[in-house]
Specification:
Shape: rod-shaped
Number of helices: 3
Radius of gyration: 29 Å
Helix content: 40-55%
Length: about 140
């Protein structure tokens, strides 16, 4: 019975490691530990056998190889911060005698090569450096 507790402890320890690191490599080891614990419970083994080690290694290896890829494929990447405005259009407004682009009700400084821009023009955001946007007509 103590072998059963050993494999349950292995599963719990690697589950705690997974919770603390979130690398998705502790989870397959945890699952493998619990599967071997079920195997030990069903067979009544009293000592560690080669078959237990083989079950643990196969499940852990398969999980460590496939789980991070399987989970990370479903995570979508969202733009954050000022990057959300790249590709969007905004109107130019004058503020303190300089042109600024209005995005979501906020005026931002612009950097552009086009000297023919005037107030009221619609421009497209192409890049940013901090809170200064590069725009083109």
């Amino acid at each position: 019975m103590s072998l059963l507790y050993f494999w349950i402890a292995v599963g719990i320890i690697f589950l705690i490691v997974e919770i603390l690191t979130t690398s998705f490599y502790g989870l397959p080891l945890s699952i493998a530990g619990f599967v071997v614990a079920i195997y030990v419970w069903l067979t009544g083994d009293v000592s560690i056998t080669l078959l237990q080690a083989l079950i643990f290694v196969l499940i852990a290896s398969f999980g460590a190889f496939t789980m991070p890829r399987w989970i990370s494929r479903k995570i979508s990447i969202h733009k954050q911060g000022m990057d959300i405005y790249i590709g969007k259009k905004g109107k130019l407004k004058k503020s303190n005698s300089e042109l600024k682009v209005e995005l979501d009700g906020v005026l931002y400084r612009i950097d552009t090569e086009d000297e023919n821009l005037k107030e009221g023009d619609t421009v497209r955001i192409t890049a940013h450096a901090w809170s200064v946007f590069t725009v083109e007509k």
